[in-house]
Amino acid sequence: QAQLLESGGGSVQAGGSLRLSCTTSENLSSVRLRTVGWYRQAPGKKREGVAGIEGADQTSYSESVQGRFTISKDNAKNSLYLQMNSLKPEDTAVYYCAARFDSVCPGMPSPSWYAYWGQGTQVTVSS
Fold first, then answer.
1. Tell me: the pLDDT tens digits for 78-112?
2. CA separation for the pair 75, 49 (Å, rounded)
3. What is the bridge-based pairing of β-strands 4-7 and 18-24?
4. Helix, strand or coil for residue 51?
5. What is the 3-state secondary structure (H, E, C) of 87-127?
């Protein structure tokens, strides 16, 4: 049973930056068929995809964060990151990292496709 642990959330003013981290119990460098990503859920809204990395490190982003957020990973540290710049109040949400280690899915899969989730970290952006 893989485990994911997020960190790095917090409160920031609009225009600011935050970097989220997600450490996995899986060895990312040894797992070829894997898809990892970041999702978020605001109060009263459905969980939505933010960014993902699949297969041969192909990245995907939602239109709402394209150009502001950057997803990356460090296989040596078994970690996934989300650098968030130019934050907006509408980015306020609980952010989750998600992973599946037996398959590859391009784009932004439905949250139900993922097998493992972190506990979430709160990001609050004030105007």
1. 999 999 999 999 999 999 999 998 888 888 899 99
2. 22
3. antiparallel
4. strand
5. CCHHHCEEEEEEEECCCCCCCCCCHHHCCEECCCEEEEEEC
Contact 16, 87 (CB under 8 A): yes
DSSP state of 77: G
The span from the first CA to the last CA of the chain, in angstroms, equals: 40
Radius of gyration of the chain, Cα coordinates, nearest whole angstrom: 14
Question: 98 burial class (0-12, 13-18, 19+ CB within 10 angstroms)?
Answer: buried
At residue 54, the pLDDT reads: 86
CA distance 75 to 78: 5
- Token representation of residue 82: 């989300």
Instruction: Give the closest residue to 59 by CA, choosing from 41, 40, 83.
Output: 83
Strand partners, 10: 123
